[in-house]
User: Fold these one by one.
Assistant:
Number 1:
Amino acid sequence: MIGTLVGKKQWAALHYAVDCNNTKLCRMLTLEEDQYRCEVNILGGNGENVLHVVAQSNCIWTNPPNTENVLPMLKLLIEDCDVDVNHADDEGRTPLHLAAMRGRLLYVEYLIDHGAKVDVRIKVLEYFIEVVHIEVDAISERRRTPLHIASKYGHLDAVQYLIESGASTTLRNAQLFNCLEISIQKQHAEVVKYLLQLPNWREMMRNAQPIEATDAYDTPMRKLIRYMPDVALWMIEEKLTRKVGGEGQKVSKEIYDYEFYEDMYTVKKWYKQGMLINKIQVCMHCINHSIS
């Protein structure tokens, strides 16, 4: 029988096909009209479904993992077959737990993006950093760090935990966005305000990306005005305006900080400095990883 559990792990044919990253065979085993169809949510000997197997498969997660190697299987199981992303095995672990335990950042993001419950995210992060000893600034595909992912989804508690654990707020992804810009683009006001109240908020604001087919640059300030005008006004009042004196005093005036108001020479300098810093940080990460 196609659903018979065999071997030490007590897996069905579908478990083994997933473990071998055989997308063609998995597709055949999950087609509704096929005589060899296997129940997509079939459980193994430890109560694990095929998404648990994905997290553990060495065939899927080649070194280094790449999108072409991982996404076809994930799309088939989660989007096409609707396998339960929140199923817990006999030890209470969901696929998200196992993805975190194995350091599968791409898989963590994919699961969250497709309905995985994230009420366990701090426990997952703690396991990442304190038990598995994953680097807090671990760089995955497209140069994303855990802080980039937490900023993208607006998880303020995760952002705070990562920064308190030493995560860099100035590392940039493949688009040259830092965590502040990622959270601005996704319009997560709480995260943006939290980041702008950190001691190094100016360093995060001093970033830029060339705008295609122009001589201009995009900046965090421009993004704030474009995506979150209310937060931009808050930022101007809270961070870029200083009041001196007051009513009934000899002096009463407001002093404005113009650093982030479109000086293109300065912005171009931010871009060049950011490119250099990013290369240094990535090189240091690679050196530390090779030493460990």
Number 2:
Amino acid sequence: MGNVIEIQNLTKNYGKHRGVSDVSFQVQEGDIFGFLGPNGAGKSTTIRSMLGLIQFQKGSVHIFGKDIRNNRELILRDIGYMPSETMFYPSMKVKDLIKMAADVRKRDCGKEAEKLCERLQVDVNKRIRDLSLGNRKKAGIICAMQHRPRLFVFDEPTSGLDPLMQTEFFRLIQEYVQQGATCLLSTHVLSEIKRYCKNAAIMKEGRLQCTDTVENLTRTNAKRIQIVREGRQESYIYKGDLKKLLGELAESTITDILIEEPSLDEIFLHFYQDDEN
């Protein structure tokens, strides 16, 4: 399979303020690709630059093999994008919003929209201003999905969704991917990356830290150590030789010890820590 997204040396600054610098990664066709990082890491700036919604200073972006700078309108026809903030006309009814989104694309999406509304339990007769955050998110998801695009781009899609709707959302993504679509999933929720993504990129402070399979990113020799030493409880992540550690601990008065695998959050934490740490 070829690459649906190819980003090379993407750089975007806001005047003197940092945006993203020298970001490069690829997303293969048929992948659910995780784009991971804390808030402010540069994920949204990368996505908006990638889609041609804001201008970037350096680098190149190709989607479906076409340069976004020269083919933006053509490319966007086959993309379903939901930004992290879902802002709609407050007086508009949900059904009118969904129809407007389809009309903009000059597509008849009625049948698919009806299916999505049923799956996501959306009341189409409510006005936007009367919706909770989660229901506004669901309306945005439907607008992004109803035309069955080749590429989905979701920026923090599950914030505000209850656990049942989160599961249903990912079930829909998996169904579309099985039918040939590709998905770029931007999130700071590590468990979503672990559960649903095969490959992932990690951002920090506007720079790409690494790109790899999720299996490799979560593989570690580190252990979480919990001990009671001389009456004091200690808990930390240890990345060295366990035999050496046990030898050192043998010189102390240890009344309890537990050695276990670190949590997913702890595995990824070192990507976010300051260099001096």
